[in-house]
Amino acid sequence: MADAGAMARRAIGIALADIDGEVAEAMRYSTAGGKGFRAFLVSEGARLHGISNDAIAPVAGAIEAIHAYSLVHDDLPCMDDDDMRRGQLTVHRKWDEAIAVLAGDGLQTIAYQLIADADDLIADQKTDLIGSLARASGIHGMVGGQEMDIVAEKRAEPMSIDEITKLQAGKTGALITWSATAGPVLMSSDIAPLKTYGDALGLAFQIADDVLDIEGDPSATGKAVGKDEGRGKATFVSLLGLDGAKRRATELVDTAIDALHSYDENADLLRELARFAVERDR
Ligand code: IPE
Ligand code: IPE
Ligand code: MG
Ligand code: MG
Ligand code: MG
Question: Does the beta carbon of 44 lie inside 6 Å of ligand 1?
Answer without folding.
Answer: no
